[in-house]
Amino acid sequence: MNQETVEKVYRLVDEIKGTDAYKTMLQKHREIEADEHVQALIASFKKAEANYNEAQKYGKHHPNLKHRKQAFSEAKAELYNHPLVKAYKQAEKSLQERLDAIGTHIAASVSKRIRVDTRLSSVDKGGLSCTIEKV
C-alpha cells in the first residue's frame, strides 16, 4: 500500500472513532469494567457457560445437562438484560453495521463481483460468549 492510501485509511479510522456509537461503546465499556454487579454477572455467566460446555461433551448422557443449560440461559439473560450491557451491545451493533456498510461499499467500488459476507459479524447473534473486548 502506498503512503496516500495508508493516510486515507487512518483518516477513516479516526472518523469511525469519532462516531457516537464508538464513543458510547468506549464509555459503556469503562462503566462495565467499574461496575461490581456487572462484573459479578460476567463471572457468573462465564462459570455457567463453562459448566454447560463441559456437560455438552457428554450430550444427553450427562445427568445435569438440562439443569446446566437452564442455569446458562438464566445467567446469559440476566447479563444481557442489564442496562449497561444492553447499551454497550447496542453501540457495538451500530458500529458493526457501519463497518459492514463501509466494507460492502469498498468491495462494490472495486468490483460488483466481490461479495462481503457480513453474516460473520457476531454482534447480537446470541453467541455462546459475552466478551467485552478492551478497545
Task: Summarize the structure in short.
The chain is mostly helical.
Explain this structure:
With 135 residues, the protein is an all-alpha fold. It has a single domain (19-120), classed as Up-down Bundle (YheA-like fold). It is built from five helices and no strands. The radius of gyration is 19 Å and the shape is flat. Residues 123-130 have low confidence and may be disordered.
Main traits of this protein?
135 residues, YheA-like fold, mainly alpha
Using only C-alpha atoms, the radius of gyration works out to 19 Å
Stretches with pLDDT under 50, minimum 5 residues: 123-130
Strand composition percent? under 5%
By CATH reckoning, the class would read: Mainly Alpha
Identify the quaternary structure here. Answer: single chain
Question: And the CATH topology?
Answer: YheA-like fold
Distance between the termini: 26 Å
List the helices and strands and how they pair.
Elements: H1 3-17, H2 20-34, H3 36-56, H4 65-80, H5 83-110
